[in-house]
Predict the structure of Methyltransferase type 11 domain-containing protein.
Amino acid sequence: MSYFEGRSGERYDRRAARLNRPLFRRICRDLAAVAPRDGAVLDAGTGSGHLLLELARVRPDLRLTGVDLSKDMIAIGRRHVRAAALEDRITLDVADVAELPYPDDRFDLVVSTLSMHHWDRVERAVAEFSRVLRPEGALWVYDFRFVSAGRLAQAVRERFPGRTMRRTPVRALLPFPVFAAYTV
């Protein structure tokens, strides 16, 4: 059993909801500023969907989709979505970021928060993100500052030719930046 399943998943969800709220609010401000009107957003590695729930409050025009490998985290997320009466705007699916079950050019924005350090196949995930993003779509990856982004940068150069990846320190929980945002 993985850390994100069963009772451990429930405990993780409660802790993550409380501890990550300031970070999620910061990310939602970033995303709300760049997502096109009536756009489609994919949250890759959504966990139990707290980022999408927050984004739905900030931008009620967006169509939101989340994927996670853990079926238990997706089940918890679906409960949260039902409790918030947002089933018509938020869809959660069990899927691997390296094998997304969506057609090409489906999303205007792909975001991933605190999951890149779990990806075994960064190159494959970025290939999938570039496939499901519309041509002018944006990729935003947030993770801990200490996580190496070398494989991410290489994959972005290969899959998003002519576009650059920008790294920005992110302050959310502490007075110093613990996280970094990588935007394409």
Remarks:
- The chain has one domain: 6-137.
